[in-house]
Design goal:
This protein has helices at about 10-25, 55-65, 85-105, 140-160, 180-190, 210-220, 235-250, 260-275, 285-290, 300-305, 310-325, 330-355; strands at about 5, 25-30, 45-50, 70, 110, 165-170, 170-175, 195-200, 200-205, 225-230, 235, 255, 295. The chain is of the alpha/beta class.
């Protein structure tokens, strides 16, 4: 049986990558830090290897004898107290994994980058893989800078002969988002009634299952040294919230906050959080990033990899249901009503298919 090694398998995207690989009949070896939350891998029959991205010896041991390596692990936060921890994990951790995989003779190495490494559009026109930042100074937020720099590591190793293929997920939505990620937190905050207004921005919403499938397809079909945007639907933030409202029966915010007001609130919130040692509710970098419509074109992945495309509505529905069932919303009556609405919407969505099959 062929073996695949996955970093980040205990996390959001990685958990779905692990499931896809198991479905394809592979044996999966997953890296996990000592004492980390392994709930996402419970009952899957995965071989757990304890180690850390920043400890090269543990990575080298995990890569021995594997055919495929999927480097999915990353520190995905918009705000961090110690920037060096993110740089170590995202940049040096990537170098450690890809070098170890190449040295071990892996047939294909898939590096999970992000659309954060692709220059954002100036307007609402979606950009593709050819959109490039000139240097780090153009990039807003530490997270995006580290993803851009880690992708540079992957490209350099591919040019040196390592069989590296790069995938750039957009904004994944779906189950197993245990932290949750900044994108998943939007869904949780909506379900909890903590989004009283919205700002005029946009993002590309993709089902995490499609992202995971895209990783496997990249290993099979991806060209070495190339990058592929794994995207779904481009939605304004208001459209995203309206879809959540339709799927859950919860109200969507109607007030559009002026950008200067949102920026001022985020600056104050971030400053207070830093003093208190807590995480800000609205990180300043997140609001700065929202100045741009983060719309992307995944035609290349559809054409070369046959990337599937699940409707954003379904991705948001699946995410909302998972968060509700796993205790991320504390109001029991609200949870019950939302789950009933989701069940009704799901039944309505599948009814035509069932009728056609009959």
């Amino acid at each position: 049986m062929e073996t695949a090694f996955v970093t980040g398998g205990t996390g959001f995207v990685g958990a779905s990558v692990v499931r896809v690989l198991l479905e394809k009949g592979l044996r999966v070896r997953a890296l996990a830090r000592k004492g980390s939350n392994r709930k996402n891998l419970e009952g899957l029959g995965v071989d757990i290897v304890e180690g850390d991205l920043t400890v090269p010896a543990s990575i080298k041991a995990a890569c021995k004898g594997v055919r495929y390596v999927f480097h999915v692990a990353a520190d995905y936060r918009i705000w961090v107290r110690d920037p060096q921890t993110m740089r170590d994990a995202n940049i040096e951790g990537t170098r450690n994994v890809l070098e170890a995989a190449a040295a071990a003779g892996a047939e294909r190495i898939v590096h999970c980058s992000s659309v954060a490494a692709i220059k954002v559009p100036r307007d609402r026109t979606p950009v593709d893989e050819t959109s490039e930042y000139k240097d780090e100074s153009e990039i807003v937020s530490l997270y995006k800078q580290t993803k851009w720099l880690s992708e540079k590591v992957a490209v350099s190793l591919a040019k040196a002969g390592a069989p590296v293929v790069i995938v750039n997920p957009a904004a994944p939505i779906g189950p197993y988002d245990i932290k949750p990620t900044p994108t998943g937190r939007i869904v949780v905050d909506f379900l909890s009634g903590r989004i009283p207004s919205y700002i005029d921005t946009g993002l590309n919403v993709v089902h995490v299952r499609d992202v995971a499938e895209g990783h496997w397809l990249a290993a099979l079909k991806g060209r070495i040294g190339e990058r592929y945007i794994l995207g779904g639907e481009n939605l304004t933030f208001k459209q995203m919230l309206d879809l959540l409202a339709q799927e859950t029966g919860m109200p969507a915010p109607w007030f559009k906050a002026p950008f200067p007001l949102a920026l001022a609130f985020a600056a104050a919130d971030t400053a207070i959080a830093r003093i208190r040692g807590t995480e800000p509710m609205a990180p300043l970098d997140a609001v700065k990033m929202a100045r741009h419509f983060m719309f992307y074109d995944s035609a290349k992945a559809a054409r070369e990899l046959s990337l599937p495309r699940t409707p954003a509505r379904e991705a948001l529905r699946d995410a909302a249901e998972w968060f509700l069932r796993n205790g991320y919303v504390k109001n029991e009556a609200k949870v019950r009503r939302a789950l009933e609405t989701i069940a009704a919407r799901r039944a309505s969505a599948t009814a035509p298919t069932a009728a056609a099959a009959a």
